[in-house]
């Protein structure tokens, strides 16, 4: 087959050997953050034979500068007017693929997107192919099988409409503009987009003309794209329309261009007038409720009047189609877009966690977030399943597909284990809901591994089900937590309902896990002793938590002579906050330039119903002492980074930490650390070099350690430098990712035997 490219050269295409080449066109204006996300999603496609053509609009939002300095595998052009059809014609002109595919700058494709679309280009008469589009929730479809009539009105069908693929059909298969592809030769034949359509009915017009030219339009039930509805000059962030002119004008123009074989002029113009009346109702009701101002109402009437006149007049003028001059000015040879990783080495991994940023920033949440994002940066396909705090959704964040899931009621399985049978129902509901989510992902792309914390028995359904290779992450468990909660341990009813079943289920999970991730050797030793479990080394891979370098952006310390001591963690006994607050008044009295910043959930009640924050604030202390202990409560990640960068030392005297993520975070910022010797603290903090270790619950030892560092600025500085160097040696993200990939490979080998 011989294809004439835009450059005028002849290219021989062997249909059996030469795969289809796609030109992905992104038309963007004033959405640089969304554009970057779309480009990120394209890096993770499974289909490698495509180029990316970005047409940037006139708004000066930094997009042009980003593209000028950005990746050199993106073809760039500029459109000086806010007219989507003009921009799309420039995209067609600059393309050099067999297929031109359009995706909006506020959309992200799923990895199989182009591979799915390519399956339908099986014959030369296939002129257009499109897939399904998810709305902003990521759960519901914006549209599925839609047709549009010759007045441009849509109808939803329950199945594709190939029987309508004939010229001048009154109903035409429709493709949404954010997920539509066209054979380039077909686009050239029909003249591309009609530039009269600045917005609205633009791709509908193209579908009609493709159909009337004798090409088939294929509607697929896959080829998924997620559309987030970003604000624009047409609509605001609440999706409130502010420009009615193209909506009314284009209805009339479209009907007069495409519908005269089926409708009279009066009917077509009447459709536009009907739209105007509907919009009038919306605007007037909105004005009563404050959505629109009186100026908006007047502007609407001016636009509606002009739209009706212009729609009729311009339909009697020549269509504004793609020109040869546009092609000559903008054509660029094919430029392959580089994928992050080839398909053969790409893993599909699902992380399961109750908490995830930005809604939750506890240790497990931050660690799994880091691990997920680091895996995604290496080109692996990553999903995170977490509990929805508000509305359920699926979002693409930092290369990770984050599923925020509403927990469903499930029938509790009948397992032989007494522990599993007695586990509280909410634990089963959570784990079974997450299992169903992973199964949905696996139905589209084979899941290589599930990574799940031991905390709250999150892995129980995956272990019982057995379909998916499971990596169990060790953290502080119920039994270790109870060591700092004697009140709970003494509550026989609470232990019967919650404590004992959870402890026994944790033991069962550890005994039966295929692969275990231990972030320290201390946690393994402590769990072996506490639970009387074997935990053989051949089932364990040791890999400390690691973190991307926050400090490069947040290490600016505020000026002044104050020395800031930072605590980060939940205000509960296990974190040692009681010990720290006990010594704080004496420290503050001795050092008048010291301030304590207490960061973390300070609302957690003790057994007596009180909180450590309230107890401290109720103390009869001098105002100068009390005012220098500042309780900040829970903070988001941005604010947390600020506190690390602004402190002089971290004091977190935990009675037990399975690893001690806060210690690592302080090392990263080059801050000396005072921490508890229990658990993993001794494996993160090098005593006497990067900080000082203290015995759990020992107020005298803690006070002496704080005095030592507050009294010697030179020692603090030396330990800070050593801390930063230790972070660089042991705790950067690359080894963590490599360890996880190796564990997944080992799991696959074992399952294959």
UniProtKB/TrEMBL annotation:
Keywords: Transferase. GO terms for molecular function: glycosyltransferase activity. It holds the Pfam family Glycos_transf_2. InterPro entries: Glyco_trans_1, Glyco_trans_2-like, Glyco_trans_4-like_N, Glycosyltransferase_grp1, Nucleotide-diphossugar_trans. Residues 564-725 form the Glycosyl transferase family domain. The keyword Hydrolase does not apply. Residues 362-531 form the Glycosyltransferase subfamily 4-like N-terminal domain. It comes from the Bacteria. This is Glycosyltransferase. It comes from Sphingomonas crocodyli.
């Amino acid at each position: 087959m011989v294809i004439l490219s835009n450059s005028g050269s002849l290219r021989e295409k062997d249909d059996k050997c030469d795969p289809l080449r796609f030109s992905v066109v992104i038309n963007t204006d004033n959405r640089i953050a969304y554009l970057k996300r779309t480009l990120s999603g394209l890096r993770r496609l499974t289909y490698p034979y495509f180029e990316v053509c970005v047409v940037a609009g006139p708004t000066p939002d930094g997009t042009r500068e980003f593209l000028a300095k950005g990746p050199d595998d993106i073809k760039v052009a500029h459109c000086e007017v806010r007219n989507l059809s003009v921009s799309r014609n420039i995209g067609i002109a600059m393309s050099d693929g067999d297929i031109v595919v359009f995706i909006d700058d506020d959309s992200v494709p799923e990895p199989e997107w182009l591979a799915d679309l390519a399956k339908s280009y099986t014959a030369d008469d296939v002129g257009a192919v499109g897939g399904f589009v998810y709305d902003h929730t990521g759960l519901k479809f914006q549209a599925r099988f839609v047709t549009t009539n010759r007045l441009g009105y849509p109808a939803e069908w329950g199945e594709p409409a190939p029987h309508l693929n004939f010229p001048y059909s009154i109903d035409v298969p429709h493709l949404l503009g954010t997920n539509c592809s066209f054979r380039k030769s077909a686009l050239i034949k029909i003249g591309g987009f009609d530039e009269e359509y600045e917005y609205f009915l633009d791709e509908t017009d193209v579908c009609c003309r493709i159909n009337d030219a004798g090409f088939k339009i294929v509607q697929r039930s896959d080829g998924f794209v997620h559309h987030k509805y970003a604000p624009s000059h047409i609509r605001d962030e609440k999706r409130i329309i502010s420009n009615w002119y193209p909506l009314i004008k284009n209805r009339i123009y479209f009907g007069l261009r495409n519908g005269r074989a089926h409708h009279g002029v009066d009917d077509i113009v009447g459709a536009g007038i009907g739209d105007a009346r509907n919009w009038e109702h919306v605007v007037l009701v909105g004005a009563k409720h404050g959505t629109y101002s009186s100026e908006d109402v007047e502007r609407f009437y001016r636009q509606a009047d002009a739209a009706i006149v212009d729609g009729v007049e311009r339909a009697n003028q020549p269509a504004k189609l793609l020109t040869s001059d546009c092609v000559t000015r903008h054509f660029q040879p094919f430029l392959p877009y580089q994928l992050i990783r080839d398909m053969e080495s790409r893993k599909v991994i699902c992380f399961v966690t109750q908490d995830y940023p930005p809604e939750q920033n506890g240790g497990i949440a931050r660690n799994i977030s880091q691990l997920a994002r680091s895996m995604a940066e290496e080109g692996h396909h990553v999903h995170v399943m977490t509990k929805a705090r508000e509305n359920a959704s699926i979002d693409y964040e930092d290369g990770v597909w984050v599923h925020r899931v509403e927990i469903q009621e499930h029938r509790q399985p009948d397992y032989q284990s007494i522990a599993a049978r007695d586990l509280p129902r909410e634990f089963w509901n959570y784990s079974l809901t997450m299992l169903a989510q992973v199964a949905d992902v696996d139905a589209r792309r084979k899941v290589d591994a599930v990574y799940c914390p031991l905390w709250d028995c999150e892995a129980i359904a995956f272990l019982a089900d057995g379909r998916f290779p499971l990596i169990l992450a060790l953290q502080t468990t119920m039994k270790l937590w109870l060591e700092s909660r004697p009140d709970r341990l003494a509550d026989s009813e609470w232990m019967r309902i919650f404590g004992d079943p959870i402890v026994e289920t944790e033991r069962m999970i550890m005994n039966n896990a295929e692969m275990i991730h231990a972030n320290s050797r201390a946690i393994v030793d402590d769990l072996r002793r506490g639970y009387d479990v074997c935990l053989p080394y051949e089932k364990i891979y040791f890999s400390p938590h690691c973190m991307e370098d926050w400090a490069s952006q947040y290490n600016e310390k505020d000026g002044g002579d104050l020395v800031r001591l930072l605590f980060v963690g939940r205000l509960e006994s296990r974190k040692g906050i009681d010990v720290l607050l006990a010594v704080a008044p004496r420290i503050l009295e001795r050092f008048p330039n010291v301030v304590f910043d207490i960061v973390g959930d300070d609302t957690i009640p003790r057994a007596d119903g009180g909180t450590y924050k309230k107890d401290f604030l109720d103390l009869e202390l001098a105002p100068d002492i009390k005012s220098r202990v500042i309780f900040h409560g829970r903070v988001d990640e941005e604010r947390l980074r600020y506190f690390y960068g602004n402190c002089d030392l971290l004091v977190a005297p935990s009675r037990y930490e399975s690893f001690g993520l806060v210690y690592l975070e302080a090392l990263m910022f080059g801050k000396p650390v005072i921490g508890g010797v229990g658990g993993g603290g001794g494996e993160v903090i090098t005593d006497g070099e990067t900080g000082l270790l203290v015995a759990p619950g020992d107020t005298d030892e803690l006070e002496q350690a704080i005095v030592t560092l507050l009294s010697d600025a030179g020692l603090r500085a030396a330990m800070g430098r050593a801390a930063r160097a230790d972070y660089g040696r042991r705790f950067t993200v690359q080894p963590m990712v490599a360890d996880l990939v190796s564990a997944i490979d080992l799991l696959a080998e074992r399952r294959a035997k």
